[in-house]
Amino acid sequence: MAAAAPGKWRLRRPASGSCLVAWHLKPADLYSTAMSTDADPRTHDRTRTGAIDLRSDTVTHPSPAMRRAMYEAELGDDVFGDDPTVNALEERAAELLGKEAGLFVASGTMGNLVAQLGHLARGQETIAGASTHMVDDEQAGHAVVVGTSIRQMQERPDGTFDLEELEAAFRDPHDLHEPITGLVELENTHAHSMARPLTLEYTQAVARIAHSHGVPLHVDGARFFNATVALGLAPHALAAPADSVTFCLSKGLACPVGSVVVGGRDFVARARRGRKLVGGGMRQVGILAAAGLVALSDGPDGMIERLAEDHANGRRLAEGLAGMDGIESAGGLAQPEPGRLDPNRVATNFVVFRLSRDLDRAAFLEALRGRGVLMVAYPHGTIRAVTHYGVTGADIERVIGACAEALDEVKSRAAGRVAATPMES
Q: What are residue 213's phi and psi, to 5 degrees?
């Protein structure tokens, strides 16, 4: 067999058996080769697909600085607590949000789950918005794993719920028929209101009510830093009213995996036990935590301040879509007023809209795909586009053009169907 190039082993399957022989790459191969075809490091993965992917901010690929940090990460065993890179990430996250301790977890869902395990006893109840991720998108983990219920609050188009209704939602702890309220949860940014950021003043008001009942406040901050950037607040200021916060590294911060839960030391110790319970104990996971350290860093490699670019791109996309016949208000929490899409509803990196009734959503999304643009079907017949790292202002102009062409295509199809319909005699 011919020898492989020095320092580089190819993937091969042995003549017999099912094991694969993995390949070894030199460090430079891991993060520099894909960069060579594109001068803009934010689009270094575009050469692989050619598509502008706006389905979610979870589709991002790690930056070159993240790839270097991951390759060079100092490792230990995180279950034993001696992975120095994980420890550094947890300390950095706690410092940024003004909390005593942090816990690195595999996902935002796991973060919310272990936060509930850290705060609640079995049989207790959480008060949360009816359309939040904890209610709609976590397979009822609160019931299946934590053993608790959720009392759902009806939200308003700014992502908040009424404070008087919140006060009335607390259970009577002296009534043996009722569960005991043990937690209040907010989602910031609030996805179904087109990712509106919840203000510091509102968070403080909710915390005051919760604390007056002796109940902690947890913030599901999957896109917490989008909220801080949009509001012009330091992360520790917006986090201050909450007893715990979960934020995702793998969304707008562009890391490949992971979230962090922050709060008091005793709470984090309980959440750490909860992480082990749900199978979240990881070993040499500093390889992943290293990307998070880059994302949370100050300076040009950090990802927090850069989120303002995503917000500007989202607003520009909405402005371009708003002038197109066939693009309409999403309705519901995203934009309750009917008519055209209102760009003023875009406060962060979500653009949510619907097509006029005579146009086929699936056909529009397929027509976009054919033009190298990906968006996603969203609840209640809407369409979502999410701006993120790797999507530039020039890409947004291309998306606007593709949307106009895709609309023309589906309109032509709709007109053809009408023309082909036999007339009644």
A: -100, 5
